[in-house]
Design brief:
Low-confidence stretches: none
Order of helices and strands: EEHEHHEEHEEEEHHHEEEHH
Radius of gyration: 20 Å
Mean pLDDT: 95
CATH architecture: Sandwich
Bound molecules: 2-oxoglutaric acid
Strand content: 25-35%
CATH superfamily: Cupin
Helix content: 25-40%
CATH topology: Jelly Rolls
Largest sheet: 10 strands, mixed
């Protein structure tokens, strides 16, 4: 079999809607179950996005979790290097392939959080009034050097991704295609321990031979984003995103209006992982860390030598 890339999938163009009314946008999260691109919507509704740029980031000194691509070439949200934001800017300018992916600026109800060192950005962000703060799970920064690929995954919230700078190519795969995306089982404790709760096992840049036959039957949707564009991705829809040029975006994760979607895949398996099988993995990890911390306290020299 020949090498296969996710771009080789048969795909339709993601529908593009120009100049939607506020009412259209308000109903977006209630009854839309397909991806949509809103060209240039950021200029009207998210004009703050222009102020999120490398100049602003170079004035920030707090440490932020930063990713370098895994061996497969994609960013996996598993391992991070914490670095001051101004150092991130210098490294990006010197051509290092780095990505800040899904790092929180706001948490639940749109309240700023400093969990990832980025609460300072909240002062620059005016959340549009048509997004009900009660429904916000988080807002997150996505920023990189270019040539940044995000693992094929789904989210348990609807996502509204606003691109301020750079370009993005987005492949979206409907939730009904979940078996062909080969999610990690709810009982794969190794994958859960690594944080691969939402990930596909498929490497989108070089699809493994064992997955090719099934994966190639998928009917995907594909679209390109330029700076100022916004994309809506429904919860449970698989997506792969490749960012080009120095890129800066922010997304809002919005809680689902229709909770019954957790009764269907892949959100059903996500619920099982998050509420049942992840718990023993977390307990094991906490007990293991506590055990080694105690050992280090009791035998500090022997461990150090
Ligand atoms: O921009 C990216 O790299 C990924 C964005 C994403 O996964 C999302 O908005 O849910």
């Amino acid at each position: 079999m020949v090498a296969m890339h996710i771009y080789d999938l048969d795909s339709d163009a993601i529908e593009r809607i120009s100049n939607p009314s506020i009412n259209d946008l308000k109903t977006l999260f209630v009854n839309t179950r397909k991806p949509l691109i809103f060209p240039g919507l950021a200029n009207r509704e998210f004009s703050f996005i222009r102020s999120l740029n490398l100049d602003l980031f170079s004035k920030m000194t707090k440490r932020v979790p930063v990713m370098t691509p895994s061996k497969s070439g994609v960013n996996l949200f598993i391992k991070y290097d914490d670095m001051p934001m101004n150092e991130f800017v210098e490294s990006v300018k010197s051509g290092k392939k780095l990505y800040i992916g899904a790092q929180k600026i706001h948490g639940e109800r749109g309240i700023p959080t400093d969990i990832n060192g980025l609460s300072g950005l909240a002062d620059n962000i005016d959340i549009p009034r048509w997004i009900n703060p009660e429904c916000i799970a988080s807002s997150n920064l996505w920023a990189g050097s270019g040539d940044n690929s995000t693992v094929l995954h789904f989210d348990p919230w609807d996502s509204l991704l606003v691109l301020g700078q750079g370009k993005k190519e987005v492949v979206v795969i409907p939730d009904v295609e979940t078996p062909r995306c080969h999610p990690y089982s709810a009982y794969n404790f190794f994958a859960l321990n690594e944080g691969r709760v939402l990930h596909s096992q498929v490497n989108p840049l070089n699809i493994q031979k064992k997955f090719q036959a099934e994966f190639s039957k998928i009917k995907a949707m594909r679209g390109s984003l330029e700076s100022g564009d916004v994309i809506f991705i429904p919860a449970g829809f698989w997506h792969f995103v490749e960012s080009q040029e120095v890129n800066v975006g922010i997304n809002f994760f919005i809680h689902l209006a229709d909770k019954s979607l957790f009764q269907q895949e892949p959100l059903r398996t996500f619920w099982i992982k998050d509420n049942i099988t992840l718990k023993p993995v977390n307990w094991f990890w906490r007990i293991k860390s506590r055990f080694f911390r105690t050992i280090r306290k009791v035998f500090p020299k022997r461990i150090a030598s």
